[in-house]
Amino acid sequence: MEKQNQIKRTISQSEALEDISNMLNTNKNITRTELADKVCERYSFTDPLGVKQRAGCLKALRELDKAGKIKLPASPQKAFTRSPRRLAEAVPAAHGVPSEAGEAGQLSIQLVETEEQMRIWNELMIREHPKGAALLVGRQIRYLVGSEYGWLGGFSFSSAALQLEDREQWMGWDKETKDACLHYVVNMSRFLIRSNVSCRNLATKLLSMVTGKLPGDFEKRYGYRPLVLESFVDKSSHAGTCYRAGNWKCIGQTKGRGRQDRYSKNQETVKDIYVYPLEKDFRLKMGLPEEKEIEAIEISSGIDIERWAENEFGGAPLGDIRLSRRLIEIAEGKAEKPGRNYSEAAGGQRSKIKAYYRLIDKADDSAVTMDNILLPHRQRTVQRMKGQKTVLCIQDGSDLNYNNLDKCEGLGVIGTNQTKAQSRGLHLHSMIAVTTEGLPLGVLRAQCSAPEGKDKEDTRKTWAIPIEEKETFYWIEGVRDSGNLQKLMPETSIINVMDREADFFEMFDDHRRNSKNVELIVRAKHDRSTTGEQKLFETARQSQVESKINIAVPRQSARAKKSKQKAKAKRPARTAEASLRFKQVELKAPSYYKDKAPIKAWVVHVWEENPPLDTEGLQWFLLTTIEVKSVEDALEIVKDYRLRWRIEDWHRVLKSGCGVEKAAHETAQRIRRAIAINLVIAWRIMLMTLMGREVPDLPAEVLFSDMEIEVLKAYAGKKTQST
Q: Does the pLDDT at position 373 exceed 50?
């Protein structure tokens, strides 16, 4: 299989840079184009038809010049605005198109080759496509849809998106494979059926026709056949029905960035990603593992002492299979002594310590990332989820303090005390999957950011800042992710459970637009206006009491004020007697979203109206998208919300049990790698603890080694004798 030429990677090598500098020094009057041609000849940068890859080489040379690696001659070209070739007037409307695609005659997909065809295509797209004609990127092909009734629309295909997280996960490729094979993926960048054409099933028929014609035309023009098509569907305006009918597969969603979004402003709308394999064995031809249907596994499957690390970390795409094996060994060693740093856990063995630092201290731009370390565990978590009827996806954030690491680069500000001294660290936002009995299935996602705070020169009001630029966007991404996962397990219901930090309008609005297939339970923080006469909290309080319930309130240790955390008084354990109410409500959009429709939800109100003296009574306002028609429904919502504490328990294990805040590395990226390993270890510790309570008959051999079992027996015997 033809691999993509890695032009920039090749000429970035020291020998190549020296070679190019010599070309420039010995040819003082050489132009950039002439230099690119020489470089293409020297390093055999040609496409499958043998044509020099001049454009790609020029781009790589410009990037090296910008980075100061070489000094290119000045470009003689002046900046100019490129105007598309157009017709003098609009393309005549199609007439007489039948109402059914099966009745339409003489439909044709015509390759745009002539000047006149290009003008027609441009005119159609500029006037009638929501995105216009645009400037296509890379290898490109355009088509017109012809018929006996006139021009019905058009298509265009161009280079694939450079980075799509959900596509990369579906492909299962690492960075090296993606860089070598991405040219086999072609993006359907424009698909237009004219607005005055109303013909049932026409879109599906045209998709079938163009996917049959494209591979041959593409090969004739570029010398190889594409293997996969990708396209994006804006759900706010299109349902994607024609794609699904045409056997395209929805594999996830974009981040709203777009190809030119270098600064992650996320100014584009979020779109569904659809793919269409042009050849059944495309994975084999790309050297990728075959896609397998997700196989459900039991919660305890593979967590035994012998295989757990291999199951949860094996095959991590770290750019080198040796690094993946090393990761397994590191996880095994750290899990044996989770509260100690790795040097202590390794017993001082220099070879193991050296191997650990060779992994953790990889360059910050290497494939050893938090996401890649967690990927095998995430895949196992999804398998465990598929074996459940209902799964709770719980999100929360927690600050990790690294204020003692004065020389660590890349940390953010996580707090400020009364003297305005800043605490440095990272903010961890994660999502774990939990059964309705509270057993943790695994870590689905984790993002470690370095909070910077609002720029003093940024005078925008908080509501005017796009949600994608705010830390709260993590909550939305988590819900979207759970929505994508639900498509992989249609027999499993997914409920997102979140605390008060997730109570913001954009969360509910994005859910109804992009993730309706999953449910929400969010504890309300804001007393919002409703479409009724009263605000949310008063509406709930004045609704009818449906039942009285007892809720066990655990004891709380006293906590002094620390950084952003408020002080907490000591609280003994007690049982709270609370009233239970529920009511359907419609929450009005904030004033700055006047064009948004109200949010329909149910509120479940839990209120301890007569708490003990000097004790703050329990009161929850739980907003949910789940229909609540009975006391049983409301009790189920309360039960699920109470399991939100599982993620806080996990954070405690992570910090106290695994000592994750003891990590000491030179950059935040390296700390993130250490955190990623400990996230999975903390999950396993918590699962072992809870399974011991929930499944007391589970054989000890599943979770402990023979030596550990003997030690525990000896300890238990000693305790028995002492009593």
A: yes
First to last CA, the chain: 72
- Residue 713's H or E segment, with its range, is helix 706-722
Examine the domain organization and report whether 652 and 639 are in the same domain. Answer: no
Residue 118's domain is classified under what CATH number?
A: 3.40.630.30
Q: 39-44: long-range contacts at Cβ-Cβ below 8 A with a sequence spacing of 24 or more?
A: 39/11, 43/7, 43/10, 43/11, 43/16
Cβ-proximal residues to 547 (8 Å cutoff; 6+ apart), any chain:
579, 580, 631, 634, 635
Question: Distance between CA atoms of 521 and 394, rounded to whole angstroms?
Answer: 10
Q: Are residues 210 and 177 both part of a single domain?
A: yes
In a domain, residue 688? The reply is yes
pLDDT at 5 over 90: no
pLDDT of residue 417: 66
Let me know the angle formed at the C-alpha of 395 by 171 and 581, rounded to the nearest 5 degrees.
130
User: For 197-216, what is each residue's pLDDT tens digit?
Assistant: 988 889 999 999 999 999 99
Q: Say if 246 falls within a structural domain.
A: yes
Range of the structural domain that residue 491 is part of:
300-455+465-499+644-694
Quote the tokens at residue 652.
């405690």
Are residues 469 and 614 part of one domain?
Answer: no
- Same domain flag for 494 and 612: no
Question: CB within 8 A of 444, min separation 6: which ones?
Answer: 378, 381, 382, 393, 431, 432, 433, 478, 481, 482, 485
Domain count, the chain: 4
Q: Which amino acid is present at 165?
A: E
Which helix (H) or strand (E) segment holds residue 432: the answer is strand 422-435
* pTM for the model: 0.68
277 with 144, same domain? yes
Residue 708 has pLDDT above 60, yes or no: no
Q: 501 near 475, Cβ under 8 Å? A: yes
State how far the Cα of 488 lies from the Cα of 591, in Å rounded to an integer: 38
Burial group, residue 47, by CB count within 10 angstroms (0-12, 13-18, 19+): middle
